[in-house]
Backbone:
């Protein structure tokens, strides 16, 4: 399906109902929720199964309570994360990926793992870049 | 290679030299360059071939000159984008993906296209979420 697109954002491609390259397209917002500072890691962390808020927070190193809460709300509103409140005392809330969220998370994790596996090359490129700048 | 990981960020998984879920890992920074507000769209736009700065800026709707410049510098430093200055008058600067950048862009585009294709479901989920909130 993506192979018929000449290139993303091509203004002459009439076949794109949604186009994240266009400023006004609603898919832009969802892309930002999924990839934004914490969205990608939150989706990735949930791909192993449902987690409670504090478990998730430990999994996503460095995220604040406020930022994780905002991230989860945006992902829930977009239909990527399901929030399940158990009628227990104290109340217990679990977060899990929806089927759509699993599909998104699979692609996000493919990118995360690729970058993790490429870090030796990335760090060499940074050294080389910084050395050129210092000349 | 990714199939042997029990889940991303698992503290008991000893096989991960880089782990974007860990706050201090340098792969976290690269993930943010690639997925951050403009990184994903910049990589995606360059996947069709090299572009000049202003061509790229038109392709990535809504990006400011300053933000595109910062995004390109970060991607260049990470070895994902190559900047080629032609010795012409006026000087002409082309940006293109490196082989590593192409690999990253392929994964980013897979995510972008998936989200674009899922927007009908996302917008329905938002309506339903907002209706629940209004009850």
Residues:
């Amino acid at each position: 399906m993506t192979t018929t697109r000449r290139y993303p954002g091509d203004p002459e491609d009439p076949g794109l109902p949604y186009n994240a390259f266009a400023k006004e397209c609603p898919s832009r917002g969802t892309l930002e929720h999924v990839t934004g500072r914490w969205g990608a890691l939150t989706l990735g962390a949930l791909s192993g199964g449902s987690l409670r808020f504090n478990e998730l927070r430990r999994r996503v190193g460095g995220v604040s309570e406020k930022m994780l809460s905002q991230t989860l709300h945006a992902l829930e509103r977009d239909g990527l994360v399901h929030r399940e409140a158990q009628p227990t005392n104290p109340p217990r809330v679990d977060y899990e990926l929806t089927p759509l969220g699993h599909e998104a998370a699979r692609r996000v994790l493919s990118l995360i793992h690729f970058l993790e596996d490429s870090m030796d090359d990335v760090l060499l490129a940074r050294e080389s870049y910084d050395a050129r700048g210092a000349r």
Notes: Chain B has one domain: 24-134. Chain B touches chain A through 67 residues (CB under 8 Å). Helices of chain B lie at 26-35, 39-46, 53-59, 65-77, 99-117, 119-134.
